[in-house]
Amino acid sequence: MLAFPLANRCGGAHFPFEPHLDMEGGNVVAPSLLRPATEFPYHVERPLITQAVLEEECPRLAPNRLSLRTCAANSLRCSPARAHSFLFTLLPVLKWLPKYQIRECLLGDVISGFSTAVLNIPQGMAYALLAGLPPIFGLYSSFYPPLVYFIFGTSRHVSLGTMAVVSVMVGVVVEHKVPGGEIPFQLNDSTNATFEDDYARVPAAAALACMSGLIQLVFGLLRFGFLVAYLSEPLVRAYTTAAAMVVVVSQLKFVFGVNMPRFSGPLAIVYLLEALLDRLDDSNMYTILIFVVCVLVLIGGKVLEEHFCQCLPTPIPWELLVVILATTISSFLQIKETKNVKVVGEIPNGLRSPVVPSTSLMGSLLVDAIAIAIVSFSLTASIGKMFALKYGDQIDGNQELLAIGLSNTVGSFFETFPISCSMSRSMLQDNTGGKTQVASLVSAIIVMVVIICIGDLFENLPRTVLAAIVLVNLKGMFIQFRDVPRLWRVNRVDLAVWTVTFIATLLLGLDMGLAVAVVFALLTILLRTQLTKYSLLGQISDTNLYQDVEEYPEAQEIHGVKIFQTNSSLYFANSDNFLKALVHKTGVDARKLITCSKRAEAKRKRKEARRAGSSPGMNVLQNGLNTNHSEEGNVTEIGHVPIPLDVPAEETYELSAAAVEDLDDSQRAQLIQAIVLDLSSVGFIDTVGVSLLQGIFQEYNEVGVLVCVAACRSSVLLSLEQAGFFESVSKSLLFLSIHDAVLYVQNVFQDTTLDNITSNTSVAVRL
To answer: Are the C-beta atoms of residues 376 and 418 closer than 8 Å to each other?
Structure first.
């Protein structure tokens, strides 16, 4: 405890009831039963506290820094408790499955799992087409990865499997590795040729899944889960919106029933649209008609479901109904043979034997795998965090990386392609009563039954039906265009990130667009530090509160004191801006004043040397930095307004107007006694920032201005200590609050009179 006399009184501090928060329209409002906050004044009496006094009365513990050897030894030390903790962290299923409440959760999980599987089956086949693969591999990707995530995942509500954005990224990559039309065993039938093309891309997709999974595993082992923080919400939403546009364009060939090559790289979407326009004359009207009918049924069904959702026990599986109906009509009318409508083709029943992914392809897939790994994890983590906030769960980002990485890696041995979390399936799983990953397990089992028993029943399903399912399920991503007007009102920098991400992804491709988006987002962070707001603070009358004088007209500057505030950390990138803003806001350029003083002193010495008839060269060099007092008025020329002396010369620096005649008006600083640097918003400081502060203290001290620091954080204080800052600056000039510093300055200069300053008089500044 501080050994200071302290009085703290809070009027009306006794509450006759428990305080609580009221909710109004989803917003937290002031408690209705409590009196306004202004009716609870407080009063504190204590002496001024500097950092030196605080550490004397309350010694601060030194940081516990362990050597690298000690850290390695601690990390490798094993005990039953550490082994138990490691096992339960690595296998989260061991935490919640033994505590699984069958009566409360099982029925909801089973219903939710069945409902999710009903959506998962058509989505899996549709998204496989996005990836340029046979539809059956979409079902494989909807079966194996959820089983792995069930064991290693930390989120209880996400639905892992195929996802539109990741699928189209996979499609671009595998098409680049195995372009259509270059298969050595092309057949005469166009449908069969496309079918063979798709199967030839399977090894590349599996290798890509393995590579992206390994990258996620490495990131997880290195505890790189924090990297997702650099993918801001505007960036992710703009990226998925642009990816949705790419998905739409890529599905147009199934909508119009034409054969089109895939394009990759910059302007691929432009080339794809150009190729489509060239082939519009070959469009199949029956394919377009089937697509339009399916879209109308899906949209109309979902609209009706939204209006009557309270009357329905479970959501209606419109996608599955459309798939069953379209398959039945296609088989009955034989539209593949009679109307030349492209269908899914052969879907073999049963599970495929494990195959080791092609290692020869992995090296060339590294860059694409990194992009897919990051996007896959960021989408899963963002959706997982949404449900964690809703239900109060804990999501471990590093464990999520391991879980998704293992899901991709293990799945690649069964020829799956990279997967992620689907927002539509996760929302369906949650809305239908799913409470744990048991729902995902039930969904995977149902998908397995379809693969083994009834997969071949979907062979006559028109591909345009799957395209309709894909495009209708992109509705949520297109709604994200509403972000543009909202960000225009809220934050223009975030709008710039959104716009650049969208345009770059659309024009440069999903991989290069993501890289450009991340770099631009990081540049905006750097730009914000360069455009830091610097303020002069004033005191709210009769309080210890200090606010920006430009924002609060009632805030009045303290006479003779400039309180300078920065709202950013102080490091090499913005140190120059900090100094420029300090000079601009306070009106005192210490460096120029010192330079003018040196010039004036050198000029005076040259005149004296000429009068004495001696060479002034060495005298000027030796004495140029010395402070000499003239016999008339004992005044030193420093290059500022005149300050008369009323204290001993050794305790005072004086400022004379004689040396500032050559300066611009903007450089003629107003008279101040002290500058208080408010560092409350400075989160860290590097060596350049420390050197800058040392220079500020030294230079302003030379021109007679006292510099103090207020509200310095402990992390910044530690950096100052390690850099040797306090070897030249006393901790007595560091104060715990702005008000402490202001009161100290006022007490130091209480005998100073500033009201009668003229060009021919001077007033003392006591240091």
So the answer is: yes
Between β-strands 674-678 and 561-566, what pairing exists: parallel, antiparallel or unpaired?
parallel
Q: What's the alpha-carbon Rg for the chain, to the nearest Å?
A: 36
SS3 annotation, 509-575:
CHHHHHHHHHHHHHHHHHHHHHCCCEEEEEECCCCCCEEECCCCCCCECCCCEEEEEECCCECCCCH
Report which of 537, 483, 730, 762 is spatially closest to residue 629, judged by C-alpha positions: 762
Separation between Cα atoms, residue 546 and residue 558, nearest integer Å? 10
* Residues 119-157 pLDDT 10s: 888 889 889 988 889 889 999 999 999 999 999 999 988
Q: Comparing C-alpha atoms, which of 456, 469, 458 is closest to residue 254?
A: 469
Residue 346 burial class via C-beta count within 10 angstroms: exposed 0-12, middle 13-18, buried 19 and up:
middle
Q: Which pLDDT belongs to residue 16?
A: 43
The distance of Cα 215 from the centroid of its chain, to the nearest Å, equals: 21
How many other C-beta atoms are found inside a 10 Å radius of the C-beta of residue 765? 26
Secondary structure (3-state) at 160: strand
Residues linked to residue 89 through DSSP beta bridges, in sequence order: none
**Is this model's pTM higher than 0.70 or not?**
yes
Q: Taking residues 651-667, what's their average pLDDT? A: 38
pLDDT digits (tens, 9 = 90+) for 16-62: 444 444 444 555 555 554 566 666 677 778 888 888 888 888 887 77
Q: How far apart are CA 102 and CA 559, in angstroms?
A: 72
Q: How far apart are CA 547 and CA 562, in angstroms?
A: 12
Amino acid 263 reads: F
In whole angstroms, how far apart are CA 683 and each of 247, 582, 715, 735, 737?
A: 43, 19, 7, 17, 16
Cα–Cα dist 495/481, whole Å: 11
User: Among the residues of 131-189, which ranges form H helices?
Assistant: 135-152, 164-177
Beta strands in 59-146 (DSSP E): none
Element (H, E) at 678: strand 674-678
Give the Cα separation of 437 and 381 in Å (integer): 16
Looking at residue 193, its pLDDT comes to: 46
- The residue among 739, 719, 740, 720 whose CA lies nearest residue 729 is 720
More confident residue, 128 or 658: 128
